[in-house]
Amino acid sequence: MKRRALPVAAAFTAAATLMLTACGGGDDTSGDSDKIAGSDQGTEKPSKSAEPSGAPAEDKPDGVDVSLPKDMNLVFDWEKPKDENEAAAMDDAANFFRAIYRGVDQRTTKDASVAAYSTGDGLKYARTQIDARLEGDWTATGTRRHYQATTRSAANGTSVEIAFCVDSSKFYGKEIKTGKVLKSEPSIADYDHFKIIMLKVPTSDGLWQASKVFVEEKAEQCR
Fold first, then answer.
1. Which candidate, 206, 34, 51, 41, places its Cα nearest to that of 124?
2. What is the dihedral of CA 13, 105, 91, 41, to 10 degrees?
3. Phi and psi at residue 220, in whole multiples of 5°?
4. How far apart are CA 141 and CA 129, in angstroms?
5. Contacts of 205 (CB under 8 A, 6+ apart)
6. Are the beta carbons of 74 and 52 closer than 8 angstroms?
7. pLDDT in 10s for each residue of the chain, 223 residues
8. Model-level pTM?
9. Distance between CA atoms of 183 and 94, rounded to whole angstroms?
């Protein structure tokens, strides 16, 4: 069995459908395109870390280590938007996932990168993902691809919604004790659609934190 699904993803799925509309494309019919769910949430002052495999800034984009082992490859196959804030928020959304898997690799929820790139519900989400793997005594290996990203900014410029697809068909669980890689046949369960609310940290130059995470599992639009 391939253990790839993030355990609490289902808890965020319904909320994503109800609270967030499509971003970046002009299909927003809500009449209030400047508002982003969760954008009023406060941020926590970080002590930043950095990025993992497939990450820019030589593994330390903000002075925080987000490096990952070579067999744990997170690929962000997306183009940065022209808007400076949206581009920075997208970079740190990638760092958020790197922080999660760094925590998995380091076997702790208290890695500096986790605190640097997440706050509020985003921090709870990250810790839940790491804890699930610690409890199961397994880690991850392979390639996880992130693609089809779109962004949408709040009018005040302090929050950005980032939506994207994830393909985990080549990303597997691995037992710590035996080194056994847990694989299964590729299926629609390998595809998820994420929406993340990134908040700008007022006390830091250019740092954004994931404050909320919404996940649609078995996302047909991502195949």
1. 41
2. 50
3. -60, -35
4. 15
5. none
6. yes
7. 343 344 443 333 333 332 332 333 333 333 333 344 444 444 444 444 333 334 444 567 778 999 999 999 999 999 999 999 999 999 999 999 999 999 999 999 999 999 999 999 999 999 999 999 999 999 999 999 999 999 999 998 899 999 999 999 999 999 999 999 999 899 999 999 999 999 999 988 889 999 999 999 999 999 9
8. 0.77
9. 25
CA distance 179 to 145: 23
Q: Which residue type sits at 12? A: F
- Cα distances (angstroms) measured from residue 94 to each of 33, 51, 55, 117, 144: 24, 8, 8, 9, 12
On whether the CB atoms of residues 51 and 57 are closer than 8 A, the answer is yes
Residue 171 one-letter amino acid: F
Q: What letter represents residue 38's amino acid? A: G
